[in-house]
């Protein structure tokens, strides 16, 4: 193999562009990123030896920082797993993260946006904030022959070449840009600056980080596993840096949770609840799960077995004392102890949130805004936890703009109200303006406004809270206490209802009078046991074709259109205009709740014809 010049993948090129033009003001973090990569590489080498029997010397795993003030270079070296030539091209030349293109688009729009980039993690490329040339020399552990040398100025291309004498591991050398303190570009050959950065960002790294200058060697970090230290001895700043290291988030966490179990099965856990949702919270292929350690030895990242999917935003470390270092993912899934730890973690996370509700309502509100949608998935996944999950949940309501808990809703329930009323829909305004709401609003009943797709499902699965049934106001019959102000409808509607039921037999299963309308002429409701149209739509979107469920058309007997219709039908049941009016009535009811007409063109024509008669 000889020297080649290759191009960065398009997304990688864009990200590099952003780095070179430094959109992020805190340039110090490049060192944290390099140390983090080196630490990962050391973990990987130790694991390869442990689990795959790779022959490697792991007696002195470490990270070394070396500076040359004259040449203005800084090198971060590790004796970890290293990379093959193919790996260097694939790992350093491309970005394999999902959502990259989308995020880069957003980043370009919003120039100074550390939050956005923090959601993403720029890793190795952050070196180009401080260097105008980067060299990487590496050799993969367990491979024969030579290593690989990579070099780039961070523009469109990089070169790759053989490196005959490279030792196992990786060395990254930065050719530093001139210092420019106005631009937060410090002198990174300065020993104090390096010490400060390492202490701030990387103190907890489990391997020694050594600084060498001449013959002098100094270890810069304490290497203490944060989760093993009593909370009182660790500063918030230290926890925050650790959180950023494991989560790749750049913002401080919302809450820190320590756990320690002693006895037959010992473990320690340090969990974090982030303060905002990652951009890929609802992407299937996103990374999730906790880090698993066994007696301080890193075993695996993204251990999904330790935390259920609905709490996938929780980050952290679990260090179990009694697991085998060889434990595989397959075994983890079945391991009794792991399942027990998982149950305890869930309990602890839920109770922590519950405490936040009273101790720090603002934090709780942030939590729910960011993660509520995900948490509600737990209502489907964990029947045993309905209660604790509902206790920490909040929902939109017709009573004010702030979300309410179910407990608070129940406290506000009116005399004689037995059920928790809710209405689902795609948006708050759609729900609030739905005809189903009319009588409830008129009589002052509070209704929960549920607008997340998952709401359609959990309400059915859960059924009740605290002995109170959850009741959709768009389903079944409504028997609100009588509204005294409403006049009794005049005349007999039975013949009209019979006529309409027959005319609309394709569309609805029944036409009946309504108690839920005050201003609208008509609305559609589902039978108490039928699935709702929204659910039907969701199933169809998932490729499950079910039978179309017909609904019930309810008419407001006090509306002039409906009473007029009754009179017209009474005068002449054969009136040729009646069937069209029936269709228009049905169509309007469908539109009012935000539904889709089956044949919009036909509806438009009927309506235009009818309007033409009135002008
Ligand atoms: N010192 C190293 N030793 C071995 N492999 C490395 C080293 N540095 C980087 N790599 C490889 O290059 C990849 C890209 O590194 P980069 O820091 O950009 O992303 P990352 O570490 O995967 O994610 P993050 O954005 O969280 O840093 C790594 O996943 C790793 O496989
Ligand atoms: Mg990295």
From TrEMBL:
Check the record and name the InterPro entries matching this protein.
HATPase_C_sf, HATPase_dom, Heat_shock_protein_90_CS, HSP90_C, Hsp90_fam, Hsp90_N, Ribosomal_Su5_D2-typ_SF
TM segment ranges: none
User: Which residue ranges are recorded for the region named C?
Assistant: 538-615
Where is this protein localized, as stated in its record? Answer: Cytoplasm
Q: Which UniProt keywords apply?
A: ATP-binding, Chaperone, Cytoplasm, Nucleotide-binding, Stress response
Pfam families, per database record? HATPase_c_3 (PF13589), HSP90 (PF00183)
Segments of this protein annotated with the region A? 1-329
Q: Which domain of life is it from?
A: Bacteria
Which range is the signal sequence, renumbered to this chain?
Answer: none
**Where in this chain does the record put each Histidine kinase/HSP90-like ATPase domain?**
26-180
Q: Which SUPFAM superfamilies match?
A: ATPase domain of HSP90 chaperone/DNA topoisomerase II/histidine kinase, HSP90 C-terminal domain, Ribosomal protein S5 domain 2-like
- Give the record's family classification: Belongs to the heat shock protein 90 family.
Q: How does it assemble?
A: Homodimer.
Described function: Molecular chaperone. Has ATPase activity.
Full protein name: Chaperone protein HtpG
